[in-house]
Amino acid sequence: MLAVFDKSVAKGPDALTSPESGSVSSLKDGFLAKHFASVHSTPVSVNLGSAGLMVYSMDKQNPLLPRLFVVVDDIFCIFQGHIGNVANLKQQYGLNKTANEAIIVIEAYRTLRDRGPYPIDQVVRDFQGKFAFILYDSSSKAAFLAVDIDGSVPIFWGTDADGNLVLSDEKETVIKGCGKSFAPFPKGCFFTSSGGLRSFEHPLNELRPVPRVDSSGEVCGATFNVDPDAKKESPSMPRVGSAANWSNY
After folding, report:
1. Which region, left, alpha or beta, applies to residue 40 given φ > 0 means left and ψ of -120 to 50 means alpha?
2. Cα–Cα–Cα angle for 72, 145, 191, nearest 5°?
3. What would the mean pLDDT of 82-93 be, rounded to a whole number?
4. Which end of the chain is more exposed for a tag (fewer CB within 10 A), N or C?
């Protein structure tokens, strides 16, 4: 799977960008989408207009961690993996028996956005399983993604030459667009367009960037570790009708 979000939609941490990274413009002339199509059979590309793009393919899948793509009310979600407590979550969100994991993620997001002032970390922590997902809401031009606490489905992210955010489960694809400005997405964390990167395991702690150094001694993006001494408020989302919904939090 691949997602490229314009920097106006999702700006990655500054620590991801390495000097003289060798990055390119991922969105120009569909560069990265074309690369993805060259290494995957029957890829499906979703043009998000000025916001970017999402691409997925059902080939080269791990049968134990299947890939799903769902669109509901202009909310797009690529989900990979599985959630063990699906039945409980369907009941919690009032979904029918045929709802899959991607639909559950979309409904959880809509609940956060429209109705519930719940902590985001609590909602993501309720997903018990091995998973990663990337969600885009075209109505509010907001991105939302998360990786489970074990990093069972590795996601890599980086910034390209235009400052756009690149995300994929394939390291080589991210390197193609971002050069050395990339890193593994941290385990047990989520990212929102306006709230940035947070840990849902340790929601009251800041995340501290640690530069990554390759075998030649060059800096390649950064990893992010929980700082036990730096505290912040638990992330939450105001109710619908507020001047700013969760995507602007």
Report:
1. beta
2. 135
3. 96
4. C
Q: Which residues constitute the domain of residue 152?
A: 2-199
Please state, for a pLDDT cut of 70, what percent of the chain lies above it. 91
Looking at the 3D structure of the chain, how many domains does it have? 1
Task: Identify whether 132 is part of a domain.
Answer: yes
Write the CA distances from 197 to 208, 209, 247, integer angstroms.
10, 11, 13
Q: What pLDDT score was predicted for residue 41?
A: 87
Per-residue pLDDT, 249? 40
| pLDDT for 243 | 43
**Predicted local confidence at residue 117, as pLDDT:** 65
Residue 145: inside a domain: yes
Q: Is 145 exposed, middle or buried (0-12, 13-18, 19+ CB in 10 A)?
A: buried
- Answer yes or no: is 210 within a domain: no
Q: Which of 160, 191, 179, 172 is nearest to 53 (CA)?
A: 160
Mean pLDDT for the stretch of residues 28-35: 95
**Which two three-digit tokens encode residue 185?**
């997405």
Burial class (CB in 10 A: 0-12, 13-18, 19+), 19: exposed
Whether 197 contacts 121, CB under 8 Å: no
Q: Specify whether the CB–CB gap between 160 and 4 falls below 8 A.
A: yes
Largest CA distance in the chain: 53
In the predicted structure, residue 25 carries a pLDDT above the cut 60: yes
One-letter identity of residue 98? T
Q: Is residue 241 part of a domain?
A: no
| CATH at 175 | 3.60.20.10
